[in-house]
Structures are given as C-alpha cells and as structure tokens.
Amino acid sequence: MRGxxxxxxxxxYGDSISYGYLxxxxxxxxxxxxxxxxxxxxxxxxxxxxxxxxxxxxxxxPELPFEWEDLQKACKDFKPEDRMILxxxxxxxxxxxxxxxxxxxxxxxxxxxxxxxxxxxxxKEHILYIAPPSLSFPGDRSYEAFSTLDGKWDASLKxxxxxxxxxxxxxxxxxxxxxxxxxHLLPEGQxxxxxxxxxxxxxxxxxx
Length: 208
Prior knowledge:
The protein is an alpha/beta fold. Helix content is 35%, strand content 12%.
C-alpha cells in the first residue's frame, strides 16, 4: 500500500536491571520511572523503532522449558529482520554454589545454539548481548568470592561473543552507581549505562 511505513521492532529481554527494580526493605514490586531506566535513551534516539521490554526479576538465560516459553511469548510478533538485546547472566552466575563464569558462558552457548529449534526468529547478527557489569561484594561472606573485578570473566564473555559472531556490549569498565545490594543500579547508574550503550549502538549501526 502506498505510504505504508514498516515499523521496526526491538525486543529487550532481561532481568531485574532491565526491569528497573527498585530495592526496598519490604521487597515490594517497585520500579524506577521509565525515564530512569537505561533503555529510555534508546527510545528517544530511535523513534522509528517499537521497543518491547520483557524483563523479570531473577531471570536467567533460558534453559528450562518455562524459560523458553517466556521467550517464545515475547518473540511471537517478531520477525528475522527485527532486533533483540539480551541482558542476562548475572542471576546465572550468582545462583551457582561457587563462582563459575565459564559455566555461564556454556549456558549462553547452548542458548544460542537452541534458539532456532525453539523458533526464536533473530539471526545472530540481529542480537546484541549486554555482558554483566562488574560485581564486587566486599565484606559479604556469602558473595565475596563472586567478585569479577579481575576482568577475566568479562574478557571470556567478549571473546566468546566474538567467536560466535554476536555483537557484545560490555559495561564492565563503567563506574555505575548502585544500591547497597551492589547489583541493582541507581537511577544515575541506569542513565550512564543507557548513554554509553546508545553510543555503542550508533557506532556499530545495530539499529540502522
């Protein structure tokens, strides 16, 4: 039809950071305002894209049947020409009994291999993986060993994505202000993340 404009679509699939979770003592389901979440800058910069944010507190890289079902539901109106930003891996890493970054990479590899089998429409060149920010838990007996400040896990994730032909954005080197739990980002942390991610996406023409 003459004058018809084809809408481009972007799926952002993530965990509590993408959800904009606001930590609180009562553990209520509270979220940061939209304009204080990292992808708000993407919405402003790419008005020709329709963004769908599917984020959930505690979400891991899909592995179990219900996890794949969640992703399939999120993808049902998407086509191969659309784009996906995947921001997962922190919960996988912290859920293990001991630090094991390579196990997370193995799970990510299996996920990417299984996407076609589960009908996930995005080809690898249309997927952007956001690697976890640096993690550090000084003074916390339960999680102190899970520090990633040596950069080894981040380097391995970037090397893996390069090998698989997946675009990878790493916020590891960014100073992202956080809540006392040392995982969730304060509004200024979310905004910094969004600004640097936007610059990266423009440089790589991911949403061209």
